[in-house]
Amino acid sequence: MVRVLGVDPGLTRCGLGVVDGGRGRSVSAVAVGVARTPPEDELPLRLRAVADEVERWMDRHRPEVVAIERVFSQHNVRTVMGTAQVSGVVALLAARRGLPVAFHTPSEVKAAISGSGRADKKQVTIMITKILGLAEAPKPADAADALALAVCHLWRAPMADRLAQAEARAAELARNHRARLKAAAKATGARDARS
Amino acid sequence: MVRVLGVDPGLTRCGLGVVDGGRGRSVSAVAVGVARTPPEDELPLRLRAVADEVERWMDRHRPEVVAIERVFSQHNVRTVMGTAQVSGVVALLAARRGLPVAFHTPSEVKAAISGSGRADKKQVTIMITKILGLAEAPKPADAADALALAVCHLWRAPMADRLAQAEARAAELARNHRARLKAAAKATGARDARS
User: Fold this and answer.
1) CA within 20 to 30 Å of A20's CA: A92, A146, A149, B74, which one?
2) What is the pLDDT of residue B5?
3) Name one Pfam family in it (chains A, B) (predicted).
4) Domain extents for chain B?
């Protein structure tokens, strides 16, 4: 079992979702919510408030991995800056606890959850509610997104791991092959020297 | 005397400069340098490395204020995200130590140091070297920028403070004036009732 903390970074609302992943594609929701900070507060205080809440979630739920939504700057400039700052803060907190951090783009999350990279927020919420067998849809959308991010990570990670293992195995085979060639060349050389 | 830590945020090079401000416009450099992280490292590790170095500077130099360059997203998208993430991390570290944080834009810094918001990096380096009476120009430019940011904060802060005081005094006068008008109206009313 792997426990993932999904984080949809934001200053006004930071989505938080904890999901356990079991064998195959089995997943179950552990906790979901949002950290909110008042827009009228100063930025450093808002970052501290979000950081404190994220750390409370880390203490309470002991995730083994943190999955964060990758921020793009296409959108509103002001919002993106705050979002980037929160994502940096969350990555720092995870790194300081020795937790691995993975970033997933919104379209990766949508594709993993709904099969389409272009699903809208509503569809993602409907799908994640179904996938996790929740009695009702998580609200607000940021909370649902955080759960979707965690599930996306669980469903993508085995694929990424298998790929990494396959590459490592291929590299080992290549190494062994080279070593055998060398040994063969040496043996031939020795035989040649004897002859 | 006020001690300011200026931070020019960045992942590859984060400029750090400590400046003491005395009476009037007197300023003196305490320390200058950069925190560097290798671009091939993963983002969370890079953020942690910068954060650790910034905290070592805070421990060693005990600044009373932290001045951070305000990030804009006009520039290269990839770089800006990293810069925003570092600025968020530094603001968090300051907030967790109870240190006030101020953000200044690059043009505020240029205007404060050189008298022109459109001075180039080279001019800022030359001016800050002169202002702080340094034997040689701080290198790289990020280090010079961090010092310039700290000086900008020291030279702008008294103005900002005076403005805040003047506004508070004006508000108090307006309050008193309204109270006197109310009292006068009441007295007139009482006299009218008697007559």
Assistant:
1) A92
2) 98
3) RuvC
4) 2-166
What pLDDT does B158 receive? 67
Mean pLDDT of chain A: 90
Q: Retrieve residue B113's tokens.
A: 């140091």
pLDDT at B187: 81
| Measured distance CA(B104)–CA(B149) in Å, rounded | 7
Chain B nearest-CA residue for A77: B73
Q: How much is the pLDDT for B180?
A: 86
8 Å CB contact between A132 and A21: no
Which CATH architecture group holds B2-166?
Answer: 2-Layer Sandwich (3.30)
- To the nearest whole percent, how much of chain A has pLDDT over 70? 89
Mean pLDDT of A40-58: 97
Strands (E), chain B: 2-8, 13-21, 27-36, 65-69, 101-104
A142 is in an annotated binding site: yes
Pairing of strands B13-21, B101-104: unpaired
Tokens standing for A29?
């929701």
Indicate which of B7, B37, B47 best probes the interface with A, i.e. most A CBs within 10 Å of its own CB: B47
Residue identified by tokens 């109870």 is B98
